[in-house]
Specification:
4 helices, 148 residues, 28% strand
């Protein structure tokens, strides 16, 4: 009997973290920042309860039946997301955001880059960050939009 064909699957895991930030670009004047970011430019910042869904992909291992061990994924997410971001002021406590505006788009990129260093190569598929129920960013590692 022939061995079964390799099957690909995607596996997702969710974590939530709380953090505060201020949307403010050093490249803009104070007036331009207020005009662009509105109340999110409050000098005292504001907070969110973020939800992050990380999706990995790969072949289902014929022995373990898994794409990745969930215990390993949980540990990677703890190191890449929870430790650097949970209960932090993103702009003051996370060096990455000293020079990068702490938008949800950039939070997703930060998480992607952290996870990419930890996960087996080629397994990270998608990072989905909910800043609120209405504001959601999906990042899949693309660096630029190609010209047509």
């Amino acid at each position: 009997m022939a061995p079964p064909a390799a099957r690909l699957a995607r596996l997702s895991r969710t974590v939530s973290f709380s953090a505060c930030h201020r949307l403010h670009s050093k490249a803009l004047s104070d007036e331009e920042n207020i005009k662009l970011f509105g109340k999110c430019n409050n000098p005292n910042g504001h907070g969110h309860n973020y939800k992050v869904i990380v999706t990995v992909r790969g072949e289902i291992d014929p022995v373990s039946g898994m794409v990745i061990n969930l215990t390993d994924l949980k540990e990677y997410m703890q190191e890449a997301i929870m430790e650097p971001l949970d209960h932090k002021n993103l702009d003051k406590d996370v060096p990455y955001f000293a020079e990068v505006v702490s938008t949800t788009e950039n939070v997703a990129v930060f998480i992607w880059e952290n996870l990419k260093r930890l996960l087996p190569m080629g397994t990270l598929y998608k990072v989905k960050v909910y800043e609120t129920d209405q504001n959601i960013v999906i990042y899949k590692g693309e660096e630029t939009i190609s010209e047509k």
